[in-house]
Design goal:
With 131 residues, the chain is α+β, with helices and mostly antiparallel strands. The protein has one domain: 2-Layer Sandwich (60s Ribosomal Protein L30, Chain: A). The protein is 21% helix and 27% strand. The protein has two helices and six strands. The chain has a six-stranded mixed β-sheet with strand order 1-2-3-6-4-5, with helices on one face. Helix 1 packs parallel to helix 2. It starts with a strand and ends in a 5-residue tail after the last strand.
């Protein structure tokens, strides 16, 4: 059985495109988030650090809505348009995780949805695994 998770803190994607978060039993999957504002158009954060912080805040809202925590995230995939932004993303990540960081892949891509988007992050984990 799978369940779609919602939170009022983050806007939902257009109908029939994707789910921001799905849970199946105790496993969860978070779609790639960017620093889009809840208006769905404006990009918040002018650099990779600020954008990563906004993304991790969104992930925090979703994990809480699912009854999990950020430390229940086991795997992150991070897409950046400039690999030199890795330290900025790691700095933001350190503000949201305690103890061991999730397993992680960092991938430089030619572009994301719009030129202003510098970072996209997706994650998966298991509810309650950090307890």
């Amino acid at each position: 059985m799978r369940k779609r998770i919602y939170t009022d803190a983050v806007s939902e994607p257009p109908a029939e495109t994707w789910s921001n978060m799905l849970v199946s039993d105790d496993l969860f999957f978070i779609s790639g988030f960017t620093a889009r504002n809840n208006d769905g158009v404006t990009i918040d954060g002018s650099d990779a650090y600020e954008q990563a912080r906004i993304i991790f805040q969104k992930m925090q809202h979703y994990t809480a809505a699912a009854g999990a925590s950020m430390n229940d995230i086991l795997k992150l995939t991070i897409f950046v348009t400039d690999i030199a932004d890795n330290k900025a993303v790691w700095r933001a990540r350190a503000e949201f995780f305690e103890d061991d960081f999730p397993a992680c892949s960092l991938v430089q891509v030619a572009a994301l949805a719009t030129p202003e988007i510098l970072v996209e992050i997706e994650g998966m984990g298991r509810i309650g695994c950090s307890a």
